[in-house]
Amino acid sequence: MEELLVKSGVQGIRSHMVLPPRTELMEGELKQRIKEADYDAVLVIRPKAFRKETQEVGTKSVYMPPPFYQNLWPYWDMAFKQFSAKGSYLKENTMVSAEFNLYHTKDETLLWSGETDTVYSENFEKLGKEYARALVKQLRKDKVI
User: Fold this and answer.
1) CB neighbourhood size of 20 (10 A)
2) Is residue 91 within 8 Å of residue 49, measured between CB atoms?
3) pTM, whole model, 2 decimals?
């Protein structure tokens, strides 16, 4: 995400590089550290919910023109039957809802907020990159950065 922010003219700093784990600091100490570091803003990302969704995945499909393609009336009746699936299966996905809140550090006001749904992946690096791309794209679109 840092690289994506730099391309937009913003310097990002990973919180785990400058702050200890959340359980090691009280809220007041954390606020003080953030203010002393003179950051402009803090982005808080947190998962909100998990849910299961079932998706039907088609394996192959082919266009099949109706048998009486040359005549109007048989064709008219078959207009919606021109697609034939060769097979499909059901796939269960775990969806993750996450929210993003950007706060101004000087007065702790909310500058921007967003949320997204994405398919959970055990490949956290890939999932993180997808979130970062979507987040930076939206921040640009909303003219926050």
Assistant:
1) 12
2) no
3) 0.67
